[in-house]
Amino acid sequence: MDALIRIFGSRKLALSDPPDGSPASPHMDSPIAPVYAELSFFTVLPAEIIYEILSLLPPLSLASLTRTSKLLRAHALTDALWQRFVCENVPSQEISGCSPAESWRDLYISLHPYWFLTRNKLWFSDKAFSGSAMTGSLVLVRYDSRRGCIEGLRILARQGIHSFESWEWKPEVIIHTFNPVVSLLVDDPILKIDKGMYAKHSSTRKELLMNTGYTRGVRSMISLCRGLAPEEQSNSMALWPPRIIPAKERVRNESRHLSRDEGHKPNSLVDASENTFRIRKWVEFGGIGAPLGVHIGEDVMTFSTVPEEYYTATKEKPWQGIWVGDYAGHGCEFLLLIQSAVDGSSERPLSSFEMPLVHHVDGPDRRGRRSLPVRQGEDGSCAGRLEAIKLTGDPNIPRGEYTWVAEDIGLGGLVRIADEKMFRGARVVKSLGHIAAEGFRDGEHIYVEGQGHNN
């Protein structure tokens, strides 16, 4: 795939055209003669059939087709084919036109090979933008049709206005309401891919300078990552994302040379991961046009994405998704809630660390009060394991760690159905919470009762 940009821009055909415009006819003893014969049969098909066939090709194959003959080049340059590639990579956005590019093909080429950023949309990092390795960041990447660029914006959450109430079920417990406010930091993108950035270098191993953060003296570069095959991974290896987070690919996340090592970089686009990337940032004094100088406070952030099926709620998995949690003095944090299959089986490989089961905890109805009748949902939504993993964290429990787990949200783990006004109708299930001292020291799991409304 390294040749993608060169092929796009080339007007040189693999089979040279004679002056009269008819396709060249290679000698039948030539090695390419059988291929040419098949190509000849293909070119006599009706234009509508050729279009349907070409619509099944990926961008690289379509680009390669432009080097076969004038006829197929004309078909491969059909702009509607390239419009599909753009729209498939921005599934959550409606794009009315290819502006500011002159064509959909030009638009696709101008931001190649970074369309995977918008296709995956949500990304989480191993470090916060401030450099903290415990907290991390959650970023939304989108295509800006006004400027024809790709930008990544941090997703922030604050606690909002809340009040304190006594819990009717257990009056000595004070519960404060939670009204989070979630927003995008639109004025300070941490990622910005301008048109033609890759075409200037056409190298997967080169880091590309981005036009971000100049007002604060912060500069940054983006780089592609080399994904690790499962057989290359080991239990002692630091990986991103951590093994407890489902992912299509993982990359090395430890380097004495800030990820400049050869093993961190892809040799070609075939080796490049479309599920991870890195941003190198530093502080540099001087004006916008000043040459690159001394990097102060240089650091590298590694980003990954979660397959959409793991954070999309369904009828059978209503609690699955990305949630905001209130962690008191630590503020708001983003959690990935994964609900297991209804039959209790795991849909992903177990990690090297699984929280212990909660079957040893009884969780009795302490006050012997009447509870609402227990009804198992016919759709099976109240069954299986529910686990909450931090996508952003704090100095006690960092990102990429469990914050709580309900081993069985069905009848096996049910404590009661709440009848108090504050939580009426909520299912109360046995759970384990993860606590630790600052610096993620002396971690332990404590019994908690989780409450959830199936709305």
**Helical content class:** 10-25%
Q: How would a crystallographer describe the biggest sheet?
A: 9 strands, antiparallel
> Which ranges are low-confidence, i.e. pLDDT below 50, for 5 or more consecutive residues?
1-37, 344-379
Number of separate helices: 8
Structural class designation: alpha+beta
Topology order in helix (H) and strand (E) letters: HHHHHHHHEEEEEEEEEEEEEEEEEEEE
Mean pLDDT figure = 80
Separation of the first and last Cα atoms = 47 Å
Q: Over the alpha carbons, how many angstroms does the gyration radius reach?
A: 27 Å
Percentage of β-strand residues: 25-35%
Q: Give the CA-based shape.
A: globular
The total of beta strands comes to 20
Key terms:
455 residues; alpha+beta; nine-stranded antiparallel sheet; seven-stranded antiparallel sheet; 8 helices; 14% helix; 27% strand; globular; disordered N terminus
